[in-house]
Write a structure and sequence with these properties.
Protein name: DEAD/DEAH box helicase
InterPro entries: Helicase/UvrB_N, Helicase_ATP-bd, Helicase_C-like, P-loop_NTPase
Number of strands: 20
Distance between the termini: 58 Å
GO molecular function: helicase activity
Pfam families: Helicase_C, ResIII
Strand order of the largest sheet: 10-11-9-12-13-8-14
Bound molecules: zinc ion
Number of helices: 12
CATH class of the largest domain: Alpha Beta
Keywords: ATP-binding, DNA-binding, Helicase, Hydrolase, Nucleotide-binding
Length: about 450
């Protein structure tokens, strides 16, 4: 009986659950179906021929399997996917326990989200970093819970899921909120509020009345059509779809201009202070410095100034291989330096220690470009000309600074060995949002 509960609103492999065949409440379907000369994987939407391969199979002799979603367990041509309608949820009275106030911009976005929730529409919130996106969601989520609906907030990165989960649990204290990410315990229960990485959406089917996708432009969501497929499959056919971003794609910006995409634009931060502008500082051949176990003098001086004034520092680099050498070099001067990257097993603990003020410098790859909020943070990029630092990545990185109302300013320094178009575009993007915010202030 337990497993029926596990299956509600989800789509799993028959081999993953313990249920009898031919149950009338369960939908059974072949996991791979022929498409053209190749296949379509119903779990992840993959239909690229070279992403299928053959494997020996105890049932069929030889079987085809999907390589695209292999990290979630093998789906092969003799596999069956099972899914089940979720049972209705109880209606929640006054689930929200929050007495903060919204800024004018947040209120606009919040109202637009409530409308989208009620009308089951698609809507985009384009809000600058630090506009206070989480609070904009509260009223919409409350509206859904009061209607007995299911809400999912999907974010591309585990860090963002880990940051959102406690905040939402706090303001919806009597609601079961679960967080799902790569190696999280699979604590699936039939709950009204799920916070998940976009990959985890692949385990859901027609489950959510409201799907909120945070940081829609972020790698890997935009480049990976699997995740778009997942978002499509995970929500009910009649569902609200809300996108949140600080850096929409060119296509979406054009659609907003032409009135083809319903959107709310929030150009000022909740504390009404302008976004810090990135400074460009030439640092010479920094790669050669790293090889010799040194830091360019400009970087060294910048870090010293902030550490001596007890201001926490993020130093972004383009590659994992730069993290350790830089940490080793910085530790000689500042013992409380650490480094993090996506595969780092201690990443959660290090970020937590940094938040508590136990570390003075954190060297990081772009995994921390979004979602992490630390008061009075100072940020630099070493090697800002590297291709991974796109306009939107740099806008996000700059957006880490000055988020706290008590510390609304701070440094954003792009140390470079040759200015790029992306760097200039990021600066322009921030300037134009600041101009728009000033215009609105003038009008209101
Ligand atoms: Zn697949
Ligand atoms: Zn087989």
């Amino acid at each position: 009986m337990e497993d029926y509960c596990v299956l509600q609103g989800r789509r799993l492999l028959l081999s993953e659950v313990d249920i009898p065949l031919n149950n009338e409440r369960v939908r059974y379907e072949p996991a791979l179906i022929p498409k053209g000369k190749s296949y379509l994987c119903k779990r992840c939407g993959n239909d690229t021929p070279y992403l299928f391969a053959q494997t020996p199979c105890v049932h069929c002799g030889t079987c085809v399997y999907c390589r695209k979603c292999i990290m979630m367990g093998r789906v092969q041509s003799c596999s069956t996917l099972v899914s089940m309608h979720p049972e209705p949820l109880p209606i929640q009275n006054k689930p929200l326990s929050w007495n903060g106030t919204l800024s004018i911009g947040q209120k606009q976005a919040s109202d637009a989200i409530v409308r989208a929730v009620i009308e089951k529409k698609e809507h985009l919130i384009w809000a600058v970093c630090g506009a206070g996106k989480t609070e904009m969601l509260f009223a919409g989520i409350e509206t859904a819970l009061q209607r007995g609906e299911r809400v999912c907030i999907a974010a591309p990165r585990t860090d963002v899921v880990l940051e959102l989960h406690p905040r939402l649990q706090q303001v919806f204290p009597h609601i079961d909120v679960i967080a799902l990410y790569g190696n999280s315990p699979d604590r699936h229960r039939n709950v009204p509020l799920v916070i998940a990485t976009t990959h985890q959406l692949l385990r859901y089917y027609r489950a959510f009345d409201i799907l909120i996708i945070d940081e829609v432009d972020a790698f890997p969501y935009t480049v990976d059509k699997t995740l778009r497929y997942a978002a499509e499959q995970a929500r009910k056919q009649q569902a609200a779809l809300i996108h949140l971003t600080a850096t929409p794609s060119k296509l979406w910006k054009r659609e907003i201009k032409q009135g083809k995409r319903s959107a709310t634009i929030i150009s000022s931060r909740y504390h009404r202070q302008p976004l810090p502008l990135p400074m460009f500082v030439w640092s010479g051949n920094w790669k050669a410095h790293i090889k010799k176990g040194r830091l360019p003098a400009a970087v060294q001086n910048w870090i010293r100034t902030h550490v001596e004034s007890k201001r926490p520092v993020f130093l972004f680099v383009s590659k994992v291989s730069y993290v350790q050498p830089l940490v080793a070099c910085l530790k000689q001067f500042y013992p409380s330096t650490e480094g993090v990257h996506a595969e780092d097993p201690d990443r959660k603990q290090k970020v937590a220690a940094f938040r508590k003020g136990m570390l003075s410098v954190l060297v990081t790859t772009t995994i921390l470009e979004r979602g992490v909020t630390v008061a009075n943070l100072q940020v630099a990029v070493l090697g800002a000309e590297e291709p991974i630092f796109t306009e939107s990545a740099l806008v996000q990185i700059a957006g880490r600074v000055g988020r706290n109302a008590s510390f609304p300013t701070g440094d954003v320094v792009l140390f470079h060995f040759g200015k790029t178009k992306a760097m200039v575009a990021a600066r322009r993007h921030i300037q134009s949002m600041n101009r728009a915010a000033r215009r609105k202030d003038h009008l209101s």
